[in-house]
Amino acid sequence: MLSEQSTPVVRATLPAVGAAIDEIATVFYRKLFAAHPDLLRDLFNRANQANGEQRQALAGSIAAFAGMLLDHPDARPDAMLARIAHKHASLGITADQYKIVNEHLLAAISDVLGEAVTPQVADAWDEVYWLMANALIALEARLYEQHGTPEGGTWRPMTVVARHEETPDALALTLRPADGTPAPAFRPGQYVSVQVELPDGARQIRQYSLSSAPGRPEWRITVKRVRAGDGPAGEVSSWLHEQTRVGDVLTASAPFGDLTLPDGDGPLLLASAGIGGTPMLAMLNHLVDSGSSRPVVVVHADRTPTDHAHRDELHALVDELPQAALHLWYEDPGHAAPAPAPSSPSARVTVSAGRADVSALPLPSDVTTYLCGPLPFMRTLRGALLGRGLPPQAIHYEVFGPDLWLGQS
Ligand SMILES: Cc1cc2nc3c(=O)[nH]c(=O)nc-3n(C[C@H](O)[C@H](O)[C@H](O)COP(=O)(O)OP(=O)(O)OC[C@H]3O[C@@H](n4cnc5c(N)ncnc54)[C@H](O)[C@@H]3O)c2cc1C
Ligand code: HEM
């Protein structure tokens, strides 16, 4: 809760801070990386810095948090905090690093807003920062504790025990702890961070959803190769495709992520596009392994059947669920190898040409939805589902990058 003296100050200055948030974020990162170049080389995602995505995520979340403190002083934006804390914990962020971020963020606010930042204004924003930082530090400490590791220490060596090129651009890697113990359990929908050392010596970290069944002794991640297009080729995905061989050892975090499938028997809609199908595979594997009879509608969109990673596995999983239907959309369904024939008469599969369209799908009104795919795909589906009267709180999503929706929620 914001103090009595800071509340009017934050209220008066939030519009100015909000309007200048991009500039504040730019100056903040410039200062942070000038003082600590190692953070850009070894912790932050340098592509997100180059393309500007992470800039908006951090500063936008603080402005959103301040707005919530003013509008709903007794509420806590738990969903936003949990999402950030899981990402931070997967990266091994430590409590002492919050002081570094505080110093450069407050300095950036002063630089950009100039004389408007009186000592009273600086104190009020310092208070906002520490309210958010302390909430995150506490959540992250709890996550580290759950994994039984000291703060920030969830990294572990994982041996690549299998490598399979699912499609020309999607590589599945099966991983097992290098000490031969079983891989730690995870909840369906969670991801791990993977760090690699690139040829220039930088250590870069990226997240990959676990696509295998939870509870098995091995993990599987499926990495889509980001080819050069408007920007350069993806650094870590290209490295993983080109360099990893069976027997190599990768460094991965413990499993994290708040977009997980809770137990229950209510109906589900799992809708994904492209490589966004990976967390859905873990969810479906879990439903099959637990003998679930939940009604499940699976929607997946891809460019072509040949580009659809784990296509046969998806058909097989849906086939094993007594109350599941699969709706596939391919922009170019063309020369598809035939899908495996369903073994159970209750399995329903449709294949359509074009982009996914959920407006006419039969869906129960109490369906819980999980979305994962490119932002335009998720926006379209979310809009269509809200248009059908589904409540916003029943629609969950995972973004395969900084969550730019946070600041707008
Ligand atoms: C929770 C979560 C789960 C994920 N799960 C998966 C998964 O299961 N499978 C999967 O494949 N991916 C997944 N991702 C995405 C993954 O973490 C990486 O983002 C992805 O592999 C790309 O990383 P990269 O290093 O190859 O590309 P990067 O090097 O990070 O590049 C990313 C983009 O930035 C562009 N870029 C880089 N530099 C510049 C520049 N100077 N100017 C303009 N543009 C630039 C690149 O062209 C590219 O398009 C997930 C992400 C998250 C957050
Ligand atoms: C109150 C303080 C902080 C806030 C509000 C904050 C907010 C955020 C947000 C919103 C994201 C994006 C989450 C997502 O992916 O959806 C993020 C990611 C990240 N944060 Fe923080 N953060 C804070 C402190 C820190 C600190 C102290 C560090 C360590 C120096 C840090 C390092 C990172 C890194 C490395 C990422 C991933 C970004 C990337 O690699 O592109 N953050 N943070």
Explain how this protein is built.
By secondary structure, the chain is α/β, with parallel strands linked by helices. It folds into 3 domains: 7-146, Globins (Globin-like); 156-252, Translation factors (Elongation Factor Tu (Ef-tu), domain 3); 268-408, Rossmann fold, CATH 3.40.50.80. The protein has helices spanning 6-19, 21-35, 37-42, 46-51, 53-71, 78-91, 97-113, 119-146, 235-243, 277-289, 311-320, 375-387, and strands at residues 156-167, 170-177, 191-197, 203-209, 219-224, 249-252, 268-273, 296-302, 324-330, 348-353, 368-372, 395-398. Strands 4-3-6-1-2-5 form a 6-stranded antiparallel β-sheet, with helices on one face. Strands 10-9-8-7-11-12 form a 6-stranded parallel β-sheet, with helices on both faces. Strand 3 (191-197) and strand 4 (203-209) form a beta hairpin. Helix 6 crosses helix 8 (119-146) and helix 10 (277-289) runs parallel beside helix 11 (311-320). It binds flavin-adenine dinucleotide (FAD) and protoporphyrin IX containing FE.
CATH level 1 name of the largest domain: Alpha Beta
Q: Give the names of the bound compounds.
A: flavin-adenine dinucleotide, protoporphyrin IX containing FE
In CATH, the topology of the largest domain is named Rossmann fold
Secondary-structure arrangement, i.e. CATH architecture of the largest domain = 3-Layer(aba) Sandwich
* Poorly predicted runs of 5 or more residues: none
Strand content: 15-25%
Structural class, please? alpha/beta
Question: What is the radius of gyration?
Answer: 22 Å
Specify the biggest β-sheet.
6 strands, antiparallel
First-to-last CA distance: 19 Å
The CATH homologous superfamily name of the largest domain equals Nucleotide-binding domain of ferredoxin-NADP reductase (FNR) module
Per the principal axes of the C-alpha atoms, what is the gross shape?
Answer: globular
